[in-house]
Amino acid sequence: MRYIYSMTKKERYQFVLNYFETHVPQAETELIYDNPYQLLVAVILSAQCTDKRVNLTTPAIFEKYPDIPALSTATFDELFPLIRSISYPNNKTKHLIGMANMVMDDFNGEIPITVPELVKLPGVGRKTANVITSVIDHQPNMAVDTHVFRVSARIGLTTNAKTPLQAELQLIKNIPKDKVHIAHHWLILHGRYICVARSPKCGECALRPACKYYQKITAA
Fold first, then answer.
1. At what angle do helices 146-155 and 212-219 cross, to 10 degrees?
2. How many domains does the chain have?
3. What range(s) does the HhH-GPD domain occupy (predicted)?
4. Which of 5, 97, 109, 211 gives the lowest tally of CB atoms within 10 Å of its CB?
């Protein structure tokens, strides 16, 4: 098994993807949802907030507002108490109501499933749109959150990427289109549980043979 100094970028990608395909063949979001509406609400709420906290919060929202038409009738004072425990509840309350109203007014009540359309919605940036389209429709879109950004740079899948968009473009250039939607989850979960921000668990990591970060710390 060759270490990073003898690996090309193509070989590094192949090593990482082959490992995940073999050992983590099923990977999906940890947000709990039953349909595109519920996923969109959950992803908007998940910005700078843990999936665990979101999953504790959404059941009450979905019970009171089971779909887009129902949410579009919500007032700030009605919705805010349901998401008070989420980070930035003021903005997210406004975003959810604004999103539901725009879907009703501009998209005939149907959640759009393309990135250019989704980013028009309040509270939906490129990352959120990439999540929705890749999870719901398996489109080859890579959502780059802090986990994906960190893991990709450490391993060496990205090089000198300064922004999430730069990282996204490098990743989708090198990952086969049919693997992009699941690779997103592989990288997130690896960053969440193994390649954590502080004190990454390199001793437990099977990606060490292809990891620039591991090579660097062991060579020091």
1. 60
2. 2
3. 45-193
4. 5
